[in-house]
Amino acid sequence: MNSFAQIIATIKKYDRIIILRHQNPDPDALGSQAGLATAIRQAFPEKNVLIGGNNTEGLKWLSTVQEVTDEDYKGALVIVTDTANRPRIDDQRFDDGAYLIKIDHHPNDDAYGDQLFVNTDASSSSEIIADLIDSSSELTLTKEVAYYLYAGIVGDTGRFLYPATTEHTMRVGGKFIALGVDTAAINNKMNEITLQQAKLQGVLFDILQIDETGAAYAVIDLEMMKKLGINQEQANSVVSTPGRLKEVCSWMEAVQKDDGTFRMHLRSQGPIINELAKNHNGGGHPLASGATAKDLDEVKQMFEELKDLVAKYNQKGE
């Protein structure tokens, strides 16, 4: 594990810096990426700082990417934020640079990079970037930087509802408010859904299968998305919805992709589910993970595994 001082020293050495994050980015991926990029640009205006990956339509209000060429990677420092493993990095040229840094808060199952800073106790990668900036005499937490980082922290803490929210998280958020960040506007934007997404939430309660253990799952297939007029990105927005039900302890949502496979979203309010995710080409946090199922049979198999996990959790009386 490297220190913040070592990472800052490396940043100072390179004239071109490319910052990446994971595929299908959420607010923390975008916030940590854009927040770090903005802080470096403000501190070192002579450096060429690029943010890469693919844009996410529903989060363009937060951040958009730039075109990064093969030539840009030559001799560049590459920093990857909020990405636990290499296959999920949203540009597989990440290793074409001169040096690679990983900054993340997920379990460090894939310790890639020439330098890495991983803090699994942090609420988000955006919180880590805020701490990195705070540790530096060169980088400054400005209102513009704080805008991105606040969105990232709010996204990964569920508006400070999830267990990952700590006293330190709240202190960091307080700094953003002191800088004048319009937190209400960000919260309202993140809470916004389309009429089609609202209809999907209603349908979700109808199709959700809830086991007596408190395990639950729902399948959102291509036919349903077409009928409701939503895409896969919009379908992902309802992943937290089952957690509002008193009867649900842990749950999975299977969103079908164009190739027929399913993107699996796993969430829990107690039982640890990231090992289950790892067994199905995924991983993540103990209470929030993602995986891939090749077909409905694998989706059902994962649900059986989830039921077993919840049942054992209940038996322990936790």
Structure notes:
By secondary structure, this protein is of the alpha/beta class. The chain has 2 domains: 4-190, inorganic pyrophosphatase (n-terminal core), CATH 3.90.1640; 195-316, Diaminopimelate Epimerase, Chain A, domain 1 (Roll), CATH 3.10.310. The chain is 40% helix and 17% strand. It has 12 helices and 11 strands. It has helices spanning 4-13, 27-43, 70-73, 125-135, 143-157, 167-178, 183-191, 195-207, 222-228, 232-235, 274-278, 296-316, and strands at residues 16-20, 48-51, 77-81, 99-104, 115-118, 209-210, 215-220, 250-256, 262-268, 283-284, 288-293. Strands 6-7-8-9-11-10 form a 6-stranded mixed sheet. Strands 2-1-3-4-5 form a 5-stranded parallel sheet, with helices on one face. Strand 6 (209-210) and strand 7 form a beta hairpin. The longest helix is centred in the C-terminal third of the chain and has 21 residues, at 296-316. The two termini are 33 Å apart.
Give a brief description:
By secondary structure, this protein is of the alpha/beta class. It is built from twelve helices and eleven strands. Strand 1, helix 2 (27-43) and strand 2 (48-51) form a beta-alpha-beta unit.
Blueprint of the fold:
Elements: H1 4-13, E1 16-20, H2 27-43, E2 48-51, H3 70-73, E3 77-81, E4 99-104, E5 115-118, H4 125-135, H5 143-157, H6 167-178, H7 183-191, H8 195-207, E6 209-210, E7 215-220, H9 222-228, H10 232-235, E8 250-256, E9 262-268, H11 274-278, E10 283-284, E11 288-293, H12 296-316
Parallel strand pairs: 1-2, 1-3, 3-4, 4-5, 7-8
Antiparallel strand pairs: 6-7, 8-9, 9-11, 10-11
Helix pairs in contact: 2-4, 2-5, 4-5, 5-6, 5-7
